[in-house]
Amino acid sequence: MLSRFVAVALLFACVAGPGVAASPAPLDGPLPDGQQPWWPSRYGEEDQIGTLNELTPAAVRAAAGLVRRGEVVDLGRVLDGDTPKFPGRSWHQTVDVSAHLVNARRPDAGGAGWGRNAINWITEVQAGTFQVGTQLDSIGHIQIGDRFYNGWTTKQVVEEWGINRFGMETVPPVVTRGVLLDIARLKGVARLDKGYVITVADVEGALAAQRVEIRAGDAVLFHTGWGALYGRDNEQFLSGEPGPGLDVVNWLYARRIAVTGADTWSYGPVPGEDPARPFLVPQTMYTKLGLFGLENLKTEELADKQVYEFLFVLTHGRTRGSTAAVVAPAAVY
Amino acid sequence: MLSRFVAVALLFACVAGPGVAASPAPLDGPLPDGQQPWWPSRYGEEDQIGTLNELTPAAVRAAAGLVRRGEVVDLGRVLDGDTPKFPGRSWHQTVDVSAHLVNARRPDAGGAGWGRNAINWITEVQAGTFQVGTQLDSIGHIQIGDRFYNGWTTKQVVEEWGINRFGMETVPPVVTRGVLLDIARLKGVARLDKGYVITVADVEGALAAQRVEIRAGDAVLFHTGWGALYGRDNEQFLSGEPGPGLDVVNWLYARRIAVTGADTWSYGPVPGEDPARPFLVPQTMYTKLGLFGLENLKTEELADKQVYEFLFVLTHGRTRGSTAAVVAPAAVY
Amino acid sequence: MLSRFVAVALLFACVAGPGVAASPAPLDGPLPDGQQPWWPSRYGEEDQIGTLNELTPAAVRAAAGLVRRGEVVDLGRVLDGDTPKFPGRSWHQTVDVSAHLVNARRPDAGGAGWGRNAINWITEVQAGTFQVGTQLDSIGHIQIGDRFYNGWTTKQVVEEWGINRFGMETVPPVVTRGVLLDIARLKGVARLDKGYVITVADVEGALAAQRVEIRAGDAVLFHTGWGALYGRDNEQFLSGEPGPGLDVVNWLYARRIAVTGADTWSYGPVPGEDPARPFLVPQTMYTKLGLFGLENLKTEELADKQVYEFLFVLTHGRTRGSTAAVVAPAAVY
Amino acid sequence: MLSRFVAVALLFACVAGPGVAASPAPLDGPLPDGQQPWWPSRYGEEDQIGTLNELTPAAVRAAAGLVRRGEVVDLGRVLDGDTPKFPGRSWHQTVDVSAHLVNARRPDAGGAGWGRNAINWITEVQAGTFQVGTQLDSIGHIQIGDRFYNGWTTKQVVEEWGINRFGMETVPPVVTRGVLLDIARLKGVARLDKGYVITVADVEGALAAQRVEIRAGDAVLFHTGWGALYGRDNEQFLSGEPGPGLDVVNWLYARRIAVTGADTWSYGPVPGEDPARPFLVPQTMYTKLGLFGLENLKTEELADKQVYEFLFVLTHGRTRGSTAAVVAPAAVY
Question: Nearest CB to A235: which of D4, D11, D240?
Answer without folding.
Answer: D4
